[in-house]
């Protein structure tokens, strides 16, 4: 019987890296190998299976239709290979070994400084690698196996995941001191001047949560009224450029300190977002993630 030759994990890793980077040099750098090594590995893979996966020109790297399908399959194979190690770690001590966690920008600077010292103290064998990125990018990395879990705000469609809600993060209306006289029970959404409402740019789920809480379809932020971060928006409000909606965790963390910006509750029907930890459904490290969620919820 003729020998059967199978692609190696390394070859599949090179192929996926090239698809993600779209450039041989950048792909090689991400794999910590030389460009010639990566190129040779992909050529060996093509020779092994007898088809061309990548069309090479001087300026463009273009995957063939079959190449795209094989990349999708390779991602699943690599994810399964990673989970072999996860299974071994899960059988050992809880919350130990490496874990990659993505955190969205409207959570990371306000929640992590409180949580990380406790994690380092109580679980010294845990090597937590953090990446701050918007919800869409974080969920894509989770789906492709490039991150293990995501700390994000719900509701948000993140694919086939398990989720543990940690707590509700209420929303506040923020404005320059003296600009309005807020009622005792907070600001009603119908009292918001939509022409002066500052929101985060597209890609940040807090924008959608804020609009949903207001429940006013006519509110749409103009391009000139978008901010890249909550800190930037607070500075814009402090300079009299408008008003905004902030999560309680940012207010509690002191984002308004040193400014003339004040915040009061948003008196809406559902004035909150849910902070949650999510991971791929069926992950062998589910017990670790649930334990981590408990630590995060207590923090």
TrEMBL record:
Stored InterPro entries: LysR_HTH_N (IPR000847), LysR_subst-bd (IPR005119), WH-like_DNA-bd_sf (IPR036388), WH_DNA-bd_sf (IPR036390)
Domain of life (superkingdom): Bacteria
Entry's family note: Belongs to the LysR transcriptional regulatory family.
Protein name as it appears in the record: Hydrogen peroxide-inducible genes activator
Keyword field contains DNA-binding: yes
Domain HTH lysR-type: 7-64
Keywords of this entry: DNA-binding, Transcription, Transcription regulation
Keyword Transcription: yes
Pfam families in UniProt: HTH_1, LysR_substrate
